[in-house]
Design a protein that fits this description.
By secondary structure, the chain is of the alpha/beta class. The protein is about 45% helix and about 15% strand. The strands form 3 sheets. A 6-stranded mixed beta sheet has the order 7-6-8-9-10-12, with helices on both faces. A 4-stranded parallel beta sheet has the order 2-1-3-4, with helices on one face. α8 runs parallel beside α9.
């Protein structure tokens, strides 16, 4: 005999409208009521295909990782780290691509929600602006947790990302420790908040040291060619810093390759530090020092936040959580530490 909502209402004592909201995973329902209704639906063999988010009650949380695909080691390392975290946390992760995300993300999310397969989502689309997230929140119900791994200035959506300001600060601190007093930086695209955070951390440390100077800056865009162009700009500038912080590894790799091709030795003539600690840093010759971002740690923290939100059934909120970063020192900054304060 076919099981209906009326049968579940009789079994639990809850109204048909309350049962409908629970099975559709919409609206605010207490955890106690939700659990009792879902357990009753399972006992009565109510069709699981009609229960939104049914998998979470059985075994797995179904997470959509929404991004826009780009080639290169950064995205491969990010996806791999999040996938390892999902495996360790026993959740199901689906990687979903959005073409032209600023134009299509709202419709994409509407279609995804209508499928009623995913329980929550991670969004990693650095190109999105605050107004894009504002539009997204118009279609995301409170019962569907979402976390962004891309930094949103003045966050309106829960955001878990790396501490870029600390990364920049640590970069300048390491240069100072090694005796590099005249330094330079190749910045990431100004429109991206994480670029500005890395620059601000770097600049603030230098401003606090009277004997340290930022003598050269170049506006990069996180792409390989801008690392090449930054080297040529440095040569044309005529003022050579002791060390350069490039705000991602792709630009750092390009800078080192171009410097070596022009008979400039790294680190003897100029020290180089990148950001993200991608595999290319270990495979380069010389190996490249870099600010390490642990993508698996990012994934574990993000998944835990989604689980917490799922259990609380609370509203979307704009809490920003930062994952610590560290510096991995290699050959590109291996100049012997100088004795400081000989007086």
């Amino acid at each position: 005999m076919k099981v209906t909502l009326k049968d579940i209402a009789k079994e639990t004592g809850y109204s048909i409208s309350t049962i409908s909201r629970v099975l559709s995973n919409v609206g605010k329902i207490s955890n106690k009521a939700r659990e009792e209704i879902l357990q009753a639906a399972q006992r009565l063999n109510y069709p699981s295909s009609r229960i939104a988010g049914y998998e979470i009650q059985k075994k797995h949380l179904n997470i959509a990782l929404i991004t826009d695909f780009h080639e290169g080691e950064f995205y491969a390392s990010y996806y791999y780290g999040i996938d390892r975290a999902a495996t360790a946390d026993n959740v199901r992760l689906s990687l979903l691509n959005v073409v032209d995300p600023r134009k299509n993300i709202k419709n994409f999310m509407t279609d995804l929600l209508s499928e009623k397969y995913y329980d929550c989502a991670i969004i990693f689309i650095p190109e999105l602006l605050r107004k894009d997230y504002e539009n997204l929140l118009e279609v995301i119900p409170d019962s569907f947790p979402v976390v962004s791994n891309a930094l949103i200035e003045n966050s309106i959506l829960s955001t878990i990302t790396f501490d870029g300001y600390s990364g920049g600060h640590q970069a300048a601190s390491m240069f100072y420790k090694y005796g590099y007093r005249n330094v330079g930086i190749v910045k990431g695209p100004a429109r991206k908040a994480e670029s500005r955070f890395r620059y601000n951390g770097f600049r603030d440390y230098i401003d606090g040291k009277p004997d340290m100077n930022l003598i050269w800056e170049f506006q990069g865009d996180f792409e390989f060619n801008s690392g090449v162009q930054s080297f040529y700009n440095l040569m044309e500038n005529g003022t050579k810093p002791d060390a350069v912080f490039l705000c991602n590894d792709l630009m750092a790799n390009a800078f080192v390759d171009t410097a070596l091709a022009h008979d400039m030795m790294v680190p003897d003539d100029i020290a180089v530090l990148g950001y993200d600690d991608l595999p290319m840093c270990r495979h380069n010759n010389p190996t490249i020092s870099s600010v390490r971002t642990d993508f698996q740690q990012l994934g574990l923290a993000t998944i835990q936040a989604l689980k917490n939100r799922f259990m609380e059934n609370g509203q979307q909120h704009g809490i920003l959580s930062l994952i610590p970063v560290t510096i991995i020192e290699r050959e590109s900054t291996s100049k012997k530490k100088l004795e400081i304060n000989l007086a």
